[in-house]
Amino acid sequence: MNVFFDTEFIEDGRTIDLISIGMVRGDDELYLVSADFDESKANEWVKTHVLPQIEGEARWSRSLMAERIVQFVGTTPTFWTYFGDYDWVALCQFYGTMTKLPTGWPYLAYDVRQWLDAKGLQSVKQPDEAPHHALLDARWIAKTHQTYGEALADTKTA
Predict the structure, then answer these.
(1) What homologous superfamily is domain 2-157 in, according to CATH?
(2) Which of 17, 20, 48, 67 lies at a C-alpha separation of 20 to 30 Å from 61?
(3) Which element (helix H / strand E) includes 137?
(4) Rounded Cα distance, 158 and 151, in Å
């Protein structure tokens, strides 16, 4: 089952401190905001573009987030991100080392940006003016994968 996801985080070049995660699987969605990130370490960009998007949202402990993600994702996911190297690391960190990922989970996430580039679709990009909100971004990733996957399939049968 394809699971499209995005995260928002604070990073300093050494650590990734997860703020929120959004996931889309079929017609189902999951959005969680961490109660455990250190807002005082946010840079100006995060303060301006990310933190306002989560005002008023319920906050979850990392342990409850990890449980809820496993329930949502299931045991045989295929993960998709967009420029998602840090997103993948942030997700894996819920479970400790990568070798401690839940049973059945892959050790990688596919990147829609790389997939688009490989298909010759370099002009397809997430709009710069889009709000930096993990669930909205996950929806865009899912829609882009669906739209261009179907379009490519149509050209092969034409």
Answers:
(1) Ribonuclease H-like superfamily/Ribonuclease H (3.30.420.10)
(2) 48
(3) helix 134-157
(4) 11
